[in-house]
Amino acid sequence: xxxxxxxxxxxxxxxxxxxxxxxxxxxxxxxxxxxxxxxxxxxxxxxxxxxxxxxxxxxxxxxxxxxxxxxxxxxxxxxxxxxxxxxxxxxxxxxxxxxxxxxxxxxxxxxxxxxxxxxxxxxxxxxxxxxxxxxxxxxxxxxxxxxxxxxxxxxxxxxxxxxxxxxxxxxxxxxxxxxxxxxxxxxxxxxxxxxxxxxxxxxxxxxxxxxxxxxxxxxxxxxxxxxxxxxxxxxxxxxxxxxxxxxxxxxxxxxxxxx
Amino acid sequence: xxxxxxxxxxxxxxxxxxxxxxxxxxxxxxxxxxxxxxxxxxxxxxxxxxxxxxxxxxxxxxxxxxxxxxxxxxxxxxxxxxxxxxxxxxxxxxxxxxxxxxxxxxxxxxxxxxxxxxxxxxxxxxxxxxxxxxxxxxxxxxxxxxxxxxxxxxxxxxxxxxxxxxxxxxxxxxxxxxxxxxxxxxxxxxxxxxxxxxxxxxxxxxxxxxxxxxxxxxxxxxxxxxxxxxxxxxxxxxxxxxxxxxxxxxxxxxxxxxxxxxxxxxxxxxxxxxxxxxxxxxxxxxxxxxxxxxxxxxxxxxxxxxxxxxxxxxxxxxxxxxx
Lengths: 259, 323
Prior knowledge:
Chain A has 259 residues and is an alpha/beta fold. Chain A is built from eleven helices and ten strands. Chain B is extended and about 100 Å long.
């Protein structure tokens, strides 16, 4: 069910400020694509344009094309709410809803949209989503406890369960492990490997080992200097990026000789 | 001197210097300690000073008010009560206070809450700035001006000199709206942006994010804010005296006739003051009006306390739980 994304000549603005310039790339279905690059190079900003979360920030806009299976996400008759239902997102900091139980957090996509759902159906969705996020065994006996009582790593997996419960085609992850310890990180990386069979996954990470471990393709973003727009420098198979990149900047960055 | 330089340059060979380090860590700054002590005393003294009038007021109201407060006092009006008759109560004033404040809350909370939602979730640019400015100005409006405004407004429609409960509610709303806007705004701003983004990323439309995430997360704080606003206006006297006048009888209809409230009751009773009693009249209480005023004051304080306790209960019920 996973779908491909094609980006053509995308420019991303915050007001008048050009944050990311001229990105074109193809993201393959049923694979993991990693974005790496120094802080402030626009990889998170770019990620947020893939499900139209970028425009939530006042004054933010884009020009160019982002196509999901050939349909332009920024087309005139496209509803951003529908885009976000099809392109899910996991954030850097785990953000379960503090007023909801673990179960309600998983069902948030359904409940917040005022959709009616039969109890048996809801139970099934909760179990399959939590199993999908490798969290079921840890929380199955306390589904009615608040989600904010879980540990950081569990909270992040709860957020992943919440994201996959709305059955998106694509899952975007913005540094999902940066606030987690190595064990939780490993759990989430294993999960990404399992999820990629059914979803297209795009992950932003600062951890190059992580990019090397989990991704099939890697895109390197860089920025020429403060105030200059970020650019996509190079995108290739992960093995190629880390062993024989085409660009000098990429090689410097992945080998730690950056700047 | 030379030894210290040596010790510094020697670096890792620190064992002979450990006494020196211990001495360094032991030296305490005497003047800092003194300032600390002085500040501590000042802070505690300020707290005690602030508590004195509060406790004194509470004590006085309870002692003087309890003299006349009784189930009888709470269940009868002042109809037909005059002079030093040992009778009469505040039922009509309680009805008026509750009605007028309730209607004012019904008017102010939607307006205030929606304004706050606009300011926090949508507002930017000149309109939001103007709104914030006028809310600030409204906070400073003297209550008597709000009363005159409402009185004039209702006189235009219902003829000069009209006195209505609803007019008092409108006057009080003018005072209440800015307080509600301000406190709701603060509470809505406390909701982390991450929660809004989390909900938006699940494909939830903006208005449902506001209703089901932002308002739901901040409902405890909003309730507290509304109750503080109610407590702030429930004791208003001047605007209500102008707009609703005063009355001796029970009036449940805010759209017709004068209405009494507790603060106005206190004011009118105190203004009448002592009554001359004939020596033969044993049922006559010379200071009955003053006693009634104190008992009404105690009633008002009890109502405010009950409101606050209700607010605490709501806060506890809706606050986000951790475990």
